[in-house]
Amino acid sequence: MSDDPDPGTDPGTEVGPEVGPEPAPAVEAGDQPAPGGAAPRGLSETDIDEALRVAAAGGGEDAEVRDTLPEDLDASGYVGPYLFPNNSRRRVPGIIYLVFAVILFGLWVTHRGAPQILINDGYLAAAIGLALFGTYSIVTGWDLKVDERDALVASVRQVGFPVGHASAQMGWRGLLSRPTWRILLYSAEDPPTQRGLVLVDGVDGEVLEWFVEENPEDWSQYDEDA
After folding, report:
1. Disulfide engineering: 63 pairs with which of 59, 142, 152, 209, CB 3.0-4.6 Å?
2. Domains and CATH numbers, the chain
């Protein structure tokens, strides 16, 4: 066996253990690195307080994106007698549909024989569809001549007992979407012993259907709260 030192090693240099790159520190389960290589950091008390404040305020920027009612349908901040929107507003979009139907039909009639491809039979189909929608909107745009107070008077006259609590709801019936008031009434006793439901036509005020029954609801909890 040869006593020559290992080739490439200086005889005067002491060879120690091989030194490599230091091992990476262990990463705890809750300290995963953030996307993009950013170093993880713990949440401070200030961060937690800010997150709680944003959550209590409604979620920050997402809270600004909400569905809201039109002003004439939102009665939450209204003071005074509330006037239910007239059903005749349906005629406005109906007229708009008919105007566009006439325009599309006119373009189809005047350009259908011309050597071009922009105006074709699709204009005729669209004109017919808009004309049907417009006509339906105008026909179903009934004028609401009977408001909730008139409907309540007709309902009280029909049930024949003194009324205490009452509520009115607007509905529509039939293919022609005729407006109809639904009036729920309770007798004036405390607690009420009778209740009734009356359907009143919103156009001419005619009582369509009605019934009265003994009140099956238990109102004793309200007496305890009082």
Report:
1. 59
2. 87-139 (no CATH), 148-225 (3.10.450.40)
